[in-house]
Write a structure and sequence with these properties.
The protein has 395 residues and is α/β, with parallel strands linked by helices. The protein has 16 helices and 11 strands. Strands 7-6-5-8-9-11-10 form a 7-stranded mixed β-sheet, with helices on both faces. A 4-stranded mixed β-sheet has the order 2-1-3-4.
């Protein structure tokens, strides 16, 4: 075993990676009962990967330089459990600085970053999301719920947390393909305005509103939330805050405060980390979500405290996103041939890694979903959480 492999093996304390080469020889990195097996094309590629594993391990998979011998998720579990031991302080500091610069997210760069991910061909999303095109964590009230039912349950929970009143005007920041906005308009006597930076999403959301007969009560705009004019009786943002970037957190909460009526309620649904602030995955940042960042709870609280808003409720959804991603990956693989026909094989390998690495991070890497309920006044909402619980899921 080379010095680099010995160094790495000492840092793998929560499982083993058994690596086989095309000539039949093997080496083992790490120790412990948990093991995963993979096959590398050659030793040179392995040593190239080891010089920057967080970036090059996924890059090498996408380019076909290694394959799991069992399943990809088992390899990612071992890698995820040991990944925090691999970066030097210097490398970590440089990546934090690079990440902060990438999160500045001006109006121009924010739109470009969103279009990078969301303006790929919509048929691809239809082949692995639920039928209503929810692209965020579902809510599994019961473990056996289908993906469709769990997404409806998520919408119902959010609606309860918004405590909607008849005739309310709701703002949906980062509305996607309009799924939540259409749900609220369909089930409640409210008007909804959705804003997005994705031209593709905005066009499809408008088409869906017309088809559902809701175009008179649901309006979609290609607009940066920083330019939106209010006021609104309720504000919801689902899976958008991860794109805001840390330098913009104070602006985001200040805008929510400015756009919300005095007796309004807001709900922020975002991925969050139980760990102290870090730079996140450089591979995800480069190839999947440029300009994005998963916030630590401490990074959310400081700008929120300065905004003038009350945090009236905080719920942490554990493992719900892992279940959601498992459903997405299964559907993606079932429809892989059709997706490859649209986007190519390299895209399929990249997105398979993205979906399963994300699931691994929610299972073993410290990620969860935070739902923060916000209000401008201390007495806007009931004194207990009883109003949030319901035995029914609106469908």
């Amino acid at each position: 075993m080379t010095p680099v492999l010995r160094w790495l093996s000492r840092r793998f304390t929560e499982g083993r990676l058994v690596i086989r080469f095309d000539d039949g020889q093997e080496c083992t990195i790490g120790s412990g009962p948990r093991a995963a097996r993979l096959r590398f094309n050659d030793r040179a590629t392995l040593h190239w990967v080891l010089r920057d594993p967080q970036m090059r391990f996924p890059e090498a998979y996408v380019e076909g330089h290694w394959e799991p011998e069992d399943d990809l998720l088992s390899v990612l579990e071992v890698a995820m459990r040991n990944s925090s031991h691999l970066l030097s302080r210097r490398t970590r500091a440089l990546r934090v600085l690079r990440a902060r610069l990438g999160e500045l997210n001006s109006a121009v760069s924010a739109k470009r970053n969103i279009q990078h991910h969301y303006d790929i061909d919509t048929p691809v999303y239809r082949l692995f999301l639920d039928q209503d095109l929810h692209y965020s964590c579902a809510y599994f009230e019961q473990p056996e719920l289908s993906l469709e039912a769990a997404q409806q349950a998520k919408c119902a929970l959010i609606a309860r947390k918004l405590d909607l009143r008849p005739g309310a005007h709701v703002l949906d920041i980062g509305c996607g393909w309009g799924s939540n906005a259409l749900y609220l308009a369909h089930h409640f006597d409210v008007e909804v305005t959705g804003v997005t930076l994705s031209e593709n999403q905005c066009a499809i959301a408008r088409e869906r509103a017309e088809a559902a007969g809701l175009a008179d009560r649901v309006h979609f705009r290609l607009e940066d939330y920083r330019q939106t004019q209010g006021p609104f009786d309720a504000i919801v943002s689902i899976g958008m805050f991860e794109h805001v970037g840390r330098p913009q957190y104070p602006v985001f909460f200040q805008r929510v405060h400015e756009l919300l009526t005095d007796d309004g309620v807001a709900l922020l649904h975002t991925i969050g980390s139980r760990h102290p602030p870090d730079q996140g995955s450089p591979w995800i940042r480069k190839y999947i979500f440029p300009g994005g960042q998963i916030p630590a709870a401490s990074e959310i609280m400081s700008p929120l405290e300065k905004s003038g808003l009350w945090m009236t409720d905080l719920e942490v959804l554990r493992l719900h996103y892992a279940r959601t991603l498992s459903h997405w990956h299964a559907r993606f693989q079932q429809n892989r041939a059709a997706i490859a026909e649209i986007m190519g094989e390299r895209f399929c390998r990249m997105w398979r890694f993205y979906l399963q690495a994300s699931e691994a991070t929610f299972r073993w890497g410290g990620l969860a979903v935070f739902q923060l309920q916000l209000a401008r006044t201390v007495d806007r909402l009931p004194l207990t959480r009883n109003y949030l619980f319901s035995d029914t899921v609106l469908g």
